[in-house]
Amino acid sequence: MPSASSKVAPRASSNPLLPRRHSLLPPPSLPAHLSPSPSPRRKTKKKTPMMLPPGHRRLPLLLCFLLSFFPSHVLAFHSFVGTYGVNYGRIADNLPPPTEVVRLLQMARIKNVRIFDSDHSVLDAFRNSGLNLAIAIPNGLVKDIAANPSKAMDWVNENVQPYYPSVRIVAVIVGNEILGGSGDLAEALYAAVVNVHDALKAVRLSSKIEVNTPHSEAVFGTSYPPSAGTFRPDLMVYLKPLLEFFSRTGAPFYVNAYPFLAYMSDPEHIDVNYALMKPNAGIVDQKTNLHYDNMFEAQIDATYAALEAAGYADMEVRVSETGWSSAGDATEPGATPENARTYNFNLRKRLFLRKGTPYRPNRVVRAYIFALFNEDLKTGPGSERHFGLFKPDGSVSLDLGFKGLTSSAPPAKEWMVRRYSATMILWCTFIFLALAAT
């Protein structure tokens, strides 16, 4: 998560079937004296309908029968379904096993999931689940993978090859918030990203699995007003090759956007309603004359402006993290259950509208919410441990209309298989009737 000091935000005082067959009747008989004399007929070969040999007619039916046992993800690939996803962090000692987490996600109908490593117990749990999964290479492995392409190949052989496609891995995330951070990984990031992509290419998965890295708002030199968004000049030496890579591969630019942190950095001057997406006067960007009634959209458009200034105006911005904490330390008054519920509810409603932003109205916003669970072992301020949508027992923490784990509810995977099998049986029936008619 980005630090609060990296946020630049407006202040409250701102202006803020089949073809039909026709049978022809034979013509009426004519009197003999009017009948034409017979003429010799040309012998023509009698045309017979093309039919499969009896044994081969069963092949389409057999194919349909076999297809009904395969999950739908074999037939289609989607990198992000809809607009809503969630971060599944596991820095805790009281979380349910991954198999139960998968069931929880299916109950809640959350189809896009991001994890912060490549834990095999999680990958095993996600097999044939129908959920999109973004896996990650932690910061601690970035240097080794950057320095040695064989390390990237080993990582892909260990964490991708044995699982794809039964696990619908849609992305490999290399590191997290490296640029603008306090570490020394900036110089290694691009090489690590390229090596992972090349390893995926070697196993013919680079067109199916995206490679990316998320950024905090510390990468921005300016972000207010949104049209003034620019990247820090001292980071462009690292950002430029990454942006070129994303442009070449068609990947989006990932940004962690937290109105919560912006508000917490200056609660006396930042309108909490603007941060929470509640009714407020909002702000007007004097350069574009665009009105913003919430900080979330302003942060995204500042990112679009920075990309445009860097020469990548066509690149999509995707939010890799956003959320609001429900509790915190005494110095974090904005971290309340009411505020967390309000922000997450309004954000979910806004994402389900499948619309763009004021500056990019035709670019649908997609976001991963932070986070699935509260994580009791996270360090830092108290707010860090209270971003969860669900409690560790799988019950709902914030009332957003989600369904939690219940003993009487059947797993969503079984329902998906039943629905898919029923569809295949219907198609097989049509094929059987068509073959029978011939």
Structural summary, described in words:
33% of the residues lie in helices and 11% in strands. It is α/β, with parallel strands linked by helices. It folds into 2 domains: 79-410, Glycosidases (TIM Barrel), CATH 3.20.20.80; 411-438. The radius of gyration is 29 Å and the shape is globular.
CATH class of the largest domain: Alpha Beta
Q: In angstroms, what is the radius of gyration?
A: 29 Å
Strands across the major sheet, in which order? Answer: 5-4-3-2-1-13-12-9-6
Instruction: Report the portion of residues in β strands.
Output: 5-15%
Could you state the oligomeric state of the chains shown?
Answer: single chain
Mean pLDDT: 84
- What letter string, H or E per element, gives the SSE order? HEHEHEHHEHEEEEHEHHEEHEHEH
Termini separation:
65 Å
Name of the CATH superfamily of the largest domain: Glycosidases
- Broad shape: globular
Q: Find the structural class using helix and strand composition.
A: alpha/beta
Question: DSSP helix count?
Answer: 12
The CATH architecture of the largest domain: Alpha-Beta Barrel
Helix content: 25-40%
Protein name: glucan endo-1,3-beta-D-glucosidase
Organism: Brachypodium distachyon
Region (Disordered): 1-53
Family: Belongs to the glycosyl hydrolase 17 family.
